[in-house]
Amino acid sequence: MARKIRRIPKAVTKLYQKDFYHQPGTLPGTIIVDENAKPPTIFLIDYNQTNFIRKQIATPEDCVPYLDTESVTWVDVQGLGNQDILQRLGQVFDLHPLVLEDVVNVPERPKIEDYEDQLLFIARMVVPKEKTCGFYSEQVSLILSKHYLLTVQEEPEHDCFEGVRIRIDRSKGIIRKQGADYLAYALLDAMIDGFFPVLELYGERIEELEEEVMVNPTRQTLQNIYQVRRELLQLRRAIWPQRDAISSLIRDGSELIGEEVRIYLRDCYDHAVQVMDMVETYRELASGLMDVYLSSVSNKMNEIMKVLTVVSSIFIPLTFVAGIYGMNFNTEKSPYNMPELNWYWGYPICLAGMAVIGFALLFFFWQRGWLNNSSTIKRD
User: Fold this and answer.
1) R_g over Cα of the chain
2) φ and ψ at 131, to 5 degrees?
3) 241, 227, 291, 212: which is closest to 121 by C-alpha?
4) Nearest to 358 by CA among 341, 366, 346
5) Any bridge partners for residue 122, and if so which?
6) Residue 139: beta bridge partners?
7) Which of 12, 29, 150, 316 is most buried by its number of CB atoms within 10 A?
8) pLDDT tens for each residue of 192-222
9) CB distance 112 to 74 below 8 Å
10) DSSP structure string for 172-217
11) At 150, is the pLDDT very low, low, confident or very high (cuts 50, 70, 90)?
């Protein structure tokens, strides 16, 4: 039975990237290619201490001559948009059907699976956007064997592996002297380190939002804070299981991972912990910004109400005076019927008295400190 792809509701999709789940009862190992996925491009790098080959190949079968050699072969598949090529790739590398399903049906939770002569590591890679805020996130699957490493990227436009490619090309460090397990570590380390530039941008973005919240918070400020919180949640969902998977690999070990490489993986795990700490710190700061924003808006409203109250308090006695003098009086019947109406300076004296009352109230409010602006937050 053909497997249908059902999409998570749009509101959830925006928060958690694109998520798919399969029709209940579908045959395990069935792969479904997303209709919007880019067609795969296959690159091959084969190297040892003395020789180096880097080229693009047309079909998965072109990898076969390099898989049984003593040199290290790195096959990098970029894109998941051709089901036939992916199935042929599974035949060439003798991939278990469940491995191919995990590789193709994205996104999968970062994890590690041991298949005797192959080790599957699913991870997430993030790359900062150049012209706008945010980041690109994609799934990367690493299938490690004794002499080769197969990587499958979700899309071909962005990755953080160029530094590793340059090290192999120029024989920098010890990568050309090590096996495929060290290459897998190098790629994992590059993916973990790729989180740091993204988090640096979010640190700067949070500082800008702090300034904005304290000086002039607007509705757009609230939307920006909410967007930062959601994106940080995406980073947390990417790095948390990835950290656990690396820890599991160090703890349980594998015949395909040498003891020396396990030591390097400890450093990779430390970097993942640092990333996790930074993500949690920024999430707390973003949550704090939400509280500061609400407090700032509340203080702003209090200042507005305070100004209106002061104005009302000043005009209440003036209205009282004006109301008294606006009453109808007949001075011919009694000299006590508002005698000020017959005074020569009655009108100026009334205005002056009202002005004195107003300024006296202002002076009283000022002395009590009620005219100070308490909504502005000063930064050290």
Assistant:
1) 35
2) -100, -15
3) 241
4) 366
5) 111, 141
6) 124
7) 150
8) 999 999 999 999 999 988 888 887 888 888 8
9) no
10) -TTGGGS-HHHHHHHHHHHHHHTHHHHHHHHHHHHHHHHHHHHH--
11) very high
Q: Are 135 and 127 in contact (CB under 8 A)?
A: yes
Amino acid at 111: K
CB of 98 within 8 A of CB of 28? yes
Angle among Cα 193, 230, 127 to the nearest 5 degrees reads: 30
Number of CB atoms found within 10 A of residue 311's CB: 10
pLDDT at 184: 93
State the Cα–Cα distance between residues 171 and 51, nearest whole angstrom: 10
Structure tokens at 273: 């912990």
d(CA 112, CA 19): 20
Structure tokens at 175: 């990568």
On average, the pLDDT of the chain sits at: 81
Find all residues with CB under 8 Å of 190, minimum gap 6, and list them: 160, 161, 163, 164
**Could you tell me which residues come within 8 angstroms of residue 322 by beta carbon, excluding any fewer than 6 positions away?**
354
Asked if residues 131 and 201 have their Cβ atoms less than 8 Å apart, the reply is no
Question: What percent of the chain shows pLDDT beyond 90?
Answer: 25
Length of the chain: 380
For residue 45, give the nearest of 28, 69, 23 by alpha carbon. 69
